[in-house]
Amino acid sequence: MTFERRTVLTHDKLRLDVRALKGGAKTPVLCIPGLTRNAADFEDFAPLAASTGRDVFAISLRGRGLSDYDAAYLNYVPPTYVGDVLGALGQLGAPKAIFVGTSLGGIVTMLTAAAAPARVAAAVINDVGPEFAPEGIARIAGYVGARAEQGGGYAPARDLDAAIDEIRAINEVAFPGRDRTFWEKFARRTYNPQPDGSWRLAYDPAIGRALLEAGPAPDLWAPFARLSGIDTLIVRGAISDLLTPPIIEKMRAVNARFDYAEVADVGHAPMLTEPDAWDAIRAFLLRFD
């Protein structure tokens, strides 16, 4: 399977990068990555999803990957992304899709289901809920905010080895015991190589400013409750510090209908290709034409 690169436009004329994979005529899958991540995160997951007989689209939200950065940094908020995603679906010729959202992508999925439920055929929400454990959100806000230097820049890694060491130091808490091959793949998805040999993080550092000033998300309990009318699978990393067992229990009290899968030895957030995750997602996807 070969990815096709597509470009869609936001309402304010920013270009968003989409990786498309042909898989068949069933309801397509739309993959939405996390806060500082991009469509590359789904390069291994997308072929698996396409093998269930459906096209798969992985989108880099504004300010990430090869998508345009936004000069108005306070547009880096979930309600803006909802509009971007709905516009992208229209341009991709998909009246509805099965949303697969990791972290921020899961927040966008919940908000989209509340705003336009007919566009969300089903939802896979990866390691995020309508409430955030304080230790997890503090960790995320800490490293994203720390990277946003005054003046809007951050220091690139001097070379690929340095990028690997940096990304491992931040994320090893979520992926303990992984080897250097794992971390090299992780780094290549998270950084872009530069002509001088350095590697720069593949997101706008102003995203950190928006997170600190605007907060991580609006209230999500009401949008989550709206998912009771939409088939939903919640995936949680078993050692996640953002989506904790007490939050899962509160979610069950609001909407007991969701399917649930837990991924062993993974924190925030699973790659979705782990056997625990993919077995549950495959069974979930096969329920839909």
Descriptive labels:
289 residues, alpha/beta, 7-stranded mixed beta sheet, 9 strands
Task: Describe the structure in your own words.
This protein has 289 residues and is of the alpha/beta class. The strands form two sheets. Strands 1, 2, 3, 4, 5, 8 and 9 form a seven-stranded mixed sheet that branches. The two termini are 21 Å apart. 36% of the residues lie in helices and 21% in strands. Helix 2 crosses helix 3 (104-115) and helix 4 packs across helix 7. The chain has a domain at 4-135 and 218-285: Alpha/Beta hydrolase fold, catalytic domain (Rossmann fold), CATH 3.40.50. Strand 1 and strand 2 form a beta hairpin. The chain is globular, with a radius of gyration of 18 Å.
What layout of secondary structure does this protein have?
Blueprint: E1 4-9, E2 15-32, H1 45-50, E3 54-59, H2 78-91, E4 97-102, H3 104-115, E5 120-126, H4 134-147, H5 160-171, H6 180-190, E6 191-193, E7 199-201, H7 206-214, H8 221-226, E8 232-237, H9 245-254, E9 259-263, H10 275-285
Parallel strand pairs: 2-4, 4-5, 5-8, 8-9
Antiparallel strand pairs: 1-2, 2-3, 6-7
Helix pairs in contact: 2-3, 4-7, 5-6
